[in-house]
UniProtKB/TrEMBL annotation:
One GO cellular component term noted in the UniProt record for this chain: nucleolus
Regions of compositional bias (Basic residues) in chain numbering: 301-323
Protein's UniProt keywords contain Transmembrane helix: no
Role summary: Involved in ribosomal large subunit assembly.
Residue spans of biased composition, Basic and acidic residues class: 234-246, 274-283
PANTHER family: RIBOSOME BIOGENESIS REGULATORY PROTEIN, RIBOSOME BIOGENESIS REGULATORY PROTEIN HOMOLOG
Stretch list, region Disordered: 229-254, 274-337
GO biological process, alphabetically ordered: endonucleolytic cleavage in ITS1 to separate SSU-rRNA from 5.8S rRNA and LSU-rRNA from tricistronic rRNA transcript (SSU-rRNA, 5.8S rRNA, LSU-rRNA); ribosomal large subunit biogenesis
Pfam families on file: RRS1
Protein name (database record): Ribosome biogenesis regulatory protein
Protein family per UniProt: Belongs to the RRS1 family.
């Protein structure tokens, strides 16, 4: 192996540096305009039309883009740099060119009620892992969603609590509670969207309006009274207060397992009505219906002849003379004597 002197090593280094400088050195008649904040370079030099026609167009455009990109990178290395972990980072200045934008800059999302409360109380959000250990199946499962750990919706047996009704369906109770939670979460989501859009946030059962009616105020008062632990059982009523209409009262059904004597009497009453030859009639209801029909007919007659009364005449009726006899005039029905 031949020995290499120090002069040969220096000559080789100088040669490599010259080749590197030749690769990164680009000569332009006019200097480029740079906007380093946007990583933008504007080339004011006119394109060489002769070279564009004679050479391959794609190669010419590629070489032109390469030269301008090299000049932009050379300008970036003139900026102050810093080392972050194992990388060299350049701190870009503020952009000077205002670029057009199709849509406005998105506004930051408004915080939810929980986020405001957590910020006020200083509650820090803790990141939870997606997988948890399921003791029943002895494996790692998802915390939420399908096939999750500790999924109580697939239990075939539920222990009845000591304080619960033995005849109550625990499966139906669990499904009802889940539906209520889902509905509550959806309501809170819609409220957060309305608060973010600065719109009117609907309450529970009553939408706010600028001019509420009497019925709406009555419903609002009824809802406020029932929003207690006793569901309004011990709330005092105002003088002349009436129950609001159309509050969505549900029909009440008898329990499946109840008093057999009451159910027996109901079935016997139905059989008696079906076997009886004469229809079962409520006398009071029939009389009231007849009286309402007669009052309606009398009111219709009064509307038809409003000025007719005792000893008077109707509109357009014949005049009466002395002694109460009808007087025949021109065009009347009486005969001329």
């Amino acid at each position: 192996m031949a020995a290499i002197t120090a002069e040969q090593v220096l000559a080789q280094v100088e040669k490599d540096e010259a080749e590197t400088l030749q690769l990164i050195t680009v000569h332009k008649e006019l200097e480029l305009q740079f906007d380093l904040g946007n990583l933008l370079a504007i080339d004011p030099n006119p394109p060489d039309t002769k070279a564009f026609r004679q050479q391959n167009r794609a190669e010419y455009l590629r070489s032109l883009a390469r030269d301008n990109t090299q000049l932009l990178i050379n300008q970036l290395w003139t900026l102050p740099t810093e080392r972050v972990q194992e990388s060299v980072v350049v701190k870009l200045p503020d952009p000077s060119t205002r670029l057009p934008r199709e849509k406005p800059v998105p506004k930051p999302r408004a915080p939810t009620r929980w986020e405001e409360f957590a910020k006020l109380k200083g509650i820090q959000k803790k990141k939870k892992t997606n997988l948890v250990w399921d003791e029943q199946h002895k494996e790692w499962r998802r915390r939420w969603g399908y096939n999750r750990a500790k999924d109580n919706t697939k239990d075939w047996l539920i222990e009845v609590p000591s304080t619960a009704d033995p005849g109550e369906d625990q499966f139906a109770k669990r499904m009802k509670a889940k539906k209520e939670r889902v509905a509550k979460n959806e309501l809170n989501r819609l409220r957060n969207l309305a608060r973010a859009d600065k719109g009117k946030v609907p309450g529970v059962g009553l939408t706010p309006t600028s001019t509420p009616s009497k019925d709406m105020l009555g419903k609002a008062m009824h809802i406020a009274k029932r929003a207690t632990a006793s569901a309004g059982k011990f709330q005092d009523k105002l003088p002349k207060e009436k129950e609001p209409k159309n509050m969505g009262k549900k029909r009440k059904f008898q329990p499946l397992l109840g008093d057999f004597k009451v159910e027996k009497n109901k079935q016997l009453d139905i059989l008696k009505i079906m076997d009886s030859k004469k229809p079962r009639m409520d006398v009071s209801k029939a009389v009231n219906k007849q009286m309402r029909e007669e009052d309606a007919e009398a009111a219709a007659k009064r509307r038809k002849n409003p000025k007719k009364g005792k000893g008077g005449r109707g509109r357009g009726g014949p005049k009466k003379g002395k002694g109460g006899q009808k007087a025949a005039g021109k065009g009347g029905k009486g005969r001329r004597k």
